[in-house]
Amino acid sequence: DTVMTQSPLSLSVTPGQPASISCKSSQSLQDSDGKTHLHWYLQKPGQSPQLLIYDVSSRSSGVPDRFSGSGSGTDFTLKISRVEAEDVGIYYCMQGTHLPLSFGGGTKVEIK
Amino acid sequence: EMQLVESGGALVQPGGSLRLSCAASGFTFSNYWMSWVRQAPGKGLEWVSHMDLDGSVTRYADSVKGRFTISRDNAKNTLDLQMSSLRVEDTAVYYCGKDLTWNALNLWGQGTMVTVSS
Prior knowledge:
heterodimer, A: 112 residues, mainly beta, 7-stranded mixed sheet, B: 118 residues, 4-stranded antiparallel sheet, 11 strands
């Protein structure tokens, strides 16, 4: 099974400052078609998860451009260029390449 | 507006059965793979199962294989999860999700709570 490891576990950020979350997989997430199915979700307090980024770097519809994703193989990063108060919640990476599908343990982002 | 609404969650005894349902609206349901994901109280997300467009492909997490069955009715725009031999560790909020591409779920329901306890 593919193990997804996120760091840090939590992050406290001043509004307007950048933030970065790392996600590492136990095996390469590149598929036979050359695509890499690494996705990022945000679960705001009391809400269902929402898709932010799919296939490493593609922003989901309506997601602000302050969110960006990068990486390849086994190492991936979600960056928020300028954190806003509405960005608080738990961020999860998820791999969609290998069965069983798997999520990282989550990174909690709080505002200072 | 695209929407998913789960129902069927309840308190059930260990060893019991339960059927969850997810009603889809606002999009062409039959054009999308669909998934179930669960979240135990205070824990992270766990993929449970997914199904292709017409139900010919179904896959399950090892933790539920042989006990849970996913199904869909494209005429009624519904996705179901039949759960049997329920265990305490199946206690969770169960979400259904619409697959944008390769298991990137771009639409989630509000979730339905399943509690397995004696």
